[in-house]
Give the backbone structure.
Amino acid sequence: MNSLTAGRLPRFVEFYVLAGSLVVVGGAFMLLGFNLGGWIFLSVVLYLIVLAALSTLAENRRKAVDRIVRSVVTIAFLLAMAPLVSTLFTVAAKGIAQLNWGFISQTGGAVFNPQTLKVTITAGAWQAIVGTLEITGIATLMSVPVGILTSIYLVEYAKPKQWMARTVTFLVDVMTGIPSIVAGLFAFSLFTLIVGPKAFSGFSASVALSVLMIPIVVRSCEEMLRLVPHDLREASFALGVSRFSTIIKIVLPTAIAGIVTGVMLAIARVIGETAPIFMAASFTDNFNVNPFFGPMQTLPVLAYTGIKFPGQDIAASIASAWGAALLLVILVVLLNIIARIVAKVFAPKGAR
Amino acid sequence: MLARRGHHPEGNTVKFKHVATAGAVALAAAIALTSCASTPSATPGASNNATSAATPLDTTLTGTITAGGSSAQANAQTAWSTAFHTQVAGTTINYDKSQGSGGGVTNWLAGSYDFAGSDAALTAAQQTSSQANCGAGGALDLPAYLSGVAIIYNLPGVTGLKLSSATLAKIFTLQVKTWNDPAIAADNPGASLPSTAITVVTRSDGSGTTANFTTYLHDVQPSIFTQAAGTAWPVAGTSGQQGGSGVVNTVTAGAGTIGYADHSSIGTATAADIQVGTAKTFVTYSAKGATNAFAAAATTTPSTKGDLTQVLDYSKITNKDSYPIPLLSYQILCTTFKDPAQAKVTKAYLGYIGSEIGQAIAAKNAGSAPLPAAILADVQKSLALVK
Amino acid sequence: MTTSEAVRSRGNAAGATGPRSPRGGAGQARLKSRPADRIFFGLSLGSAVLIVVILAAVATFLIVQSIPAITADWKTSPELSTGPTAGYSSFWSYVAPLIWGTVWVSAIALVIGAPIAIGIALFISHYAPRRLAGVLGYLIDLLAAVPSIVFGLWGIIVIRPLLLPLTDWLNQNLGWIPIFAGKPSTTGSTILAGGVVLAVMILPIISSISREIFLQTPRLHEEAALALGATKWEMIKLAVFPYARSGVVSATLLGLGRALGETMAIALIISPSIGFSLRILTEGQNAQTIAANIALNFQVADALQRKALIGTGLVLFVISLAVNIVARFIVSRTGKSGGPRRRVQLAPPEAASLFVANDPALSPVRGTSDKAEGASA
């Protein structure tokens, strides 16, 4: 043993102590009655105590604290992985039975048999998928230009500490705090003023989602634009290129990957909103493809109503609610993946 | 029924078919429907007759009806709109069940809806403010959906629970805390009741079911259930859950739990038998029981010409063929529409709901109880006033 | 060196020499002004103005809608003395317990969530194997994208039953502590369950932002601490935490903002009663939050009751505003050394999660290039 390793515990001491704790506590629990949560919790406590004791004896107090913190931090991380895995597993397990091509591609609805008076409900999410894509798509089309232009104003045009820029930045922060149901009410009231009382439409839901999306887009784009080094702009100006061309040809392409990712994540954030959609777009079982007239169905609302107002066949309603929830999660994950791919593709490549 | 038969000769046909097919068709017996409403379903082709018996459906109508409100009606509305759309292909009906009764009436008062589904009739103030959109004739409350408030429980080892109205009131005011309480034992002689603590599950959201149930408790046992009736559950200390489905799920998942829900939404949960009248008579929920209770207890108290607001006097529900806690839901519409075409299509749809065939469809597909024929005749008469 | 790396390092250089330098400032250079330029400037300014207009419209809408209910006499009004608003003498007596409930549930979520979130951030920034860090960060951020309705349902079927044994245990053994007192819930719809689910929902927000800030710690400070013989934890205490304190505080406040406004998960899980209660293990004596109360009662509320509920929404809006102002104040008071860091600290969760999901080379906040590669590899 050389002087460097003297007074140090063996390399994998944490693993040995953890395994030992699990076995000891597990054995105790076997005698007293098994409880998974209690087993893990007590094992971890025992592990921390033993590790602290060992380390204090063999090393010193400082090292002991270091090891404890390392363990606690790792445990915090594993603790956070548990709900993530659990959430995704729950949705997948409950939704997978419902999720087949028929559920995705067919319009949900009901068929009436005049002979028996029986109304047969067919589960289907197609109109909800279309509704979600249209409403979120329109919201994106409205929020993204406004968001990007505002961030361009803040980064490229406004002088530092200018009152207008400060006001806008502050208001954008404030906007992130608007409760989503308020956004829905606001959009519905706005459209009642414009088009009269029957204001339900996918478009008004899009406006509600835009109110929620714009601040997110502004914030992420602003961050991305600020990353673009000032040298690039100055080089462009030095060559006599106008500010407009500099922004369009230099600044935006440099930041495009980040902007696209930010937009995608903003979409992911609003696509699951329920309250603003049923405030502004109402609810329908019918298939409505026109976002400018009449109620529309969406995936989060399908999930919510399936749970809250189940049909006569309660199990079937709840199954299709989980199916819708799973579809939504898949959609969000897909968007995340697309965002990452887009970010990779558009990122400036190679030295020039 | 008599009045209608005078107007519609087909009424006799229905009667005849009732005689001809009763007992012969197992299906008719299987569907526990009241009166002659069940018969058309048994005989192919008869439904068209029955439909025309109520209101001749104009199958050439076109238009979109936008409505919403009561979630109690949600399943019935799905069935009605599907059936109506099947026969009148040019129409689209959007009923927003996520709004709830209050949201339905609010949106309807604002003119966003052609009609509102509501578990409560309009208040005097709402009736007055409706004149802004509806003209001087005001608005009509038309009974459309009848069901019962079921008392569901989950107590392992105990089935066939019977509860008197007093015990029910004590349980729901948390005065009775365990299942082996003498009050419950007195209602269930011979049953072995565990000492499990009672967990009372109620609605955390405002609800028409809560309004119906608290009205019943307050009317029948005013000395025990002293709290005022209303859409919000008034007793603190219960387990409040969101939505009827939240109550049903929590009751089913727990042990020693008891709750209340619209009978049509309880699924496989177990419902208790409830005392009717003051004697020790306990009644299991049945659609027929709800219909009978409604017929016995309801009085029409119009707030405007043609209005069919019902006032229920629970003390009149004494017969053992009646279920003591009926649940009624209305359709609310203007007497005068701004657009006559919209009035026509809305009238046709609501007329269909208020027909015997409409009630039979709801009974079959949403588990509701058919409204008595007399009130349906009144609904048709009131609809005739709508322009 | 790739362009993107150049971008990053030069960005840092610019940040070091002058924090404000990326801001162009129209007056900096005299450029040719073309019609396209003017139009584009007009569009940008117009968008900024539009945001001001939208927010003003939302605020006006809230105020106009809620004034009749706030000023009404709650005792005599036929509408407000029935239904969800029955039994309150004024708007303020209705909203006060709701404010308490909102703050209480959010505080519980923070107490549970914030330490774990900061632990995660520390794990990813300083403890995780470098190859794993980026992937792990992405996984945590994925939590931010799960719709809240899914969290609500997950809370009902997983968290509620899971916490029941703990609820009983705490009540039996620690029932003398006021928050654990009372009759324990048998169904699991407790404040504790709501707080745990909310904690999970705010985890990604606090941890993404904290992680970015931990990663910004100047490498030199860290190496200096290690060179003096500090253990890793001592290095973190000496170099990382002092540098990151204000940022972590504002990250936590942003998490608080999210918790305050959460509707659906709380409405589905907690069994509420509007009142002042500290207890977290009971049902029916739970505090209620503003957002969940709106969601639960909006459907039966009539016109004036709706206005009252919108009034509580206005109060929530003001609370969110206050949280934002506090976050800003803390950052501006203690963040002077940070320079460009300021922007990041106040970034919303979405922007923060972006940094990890994004090509790391474009990330604004890596201290030095080897650090960035470490986190992104």
Chain B has two domains: 13-147+335-383, 149-290. Residues 162 and 188 of chain B are 6 Å apart (CA to CA). The first strand of chain B starts at residue 63 and ends at 69.
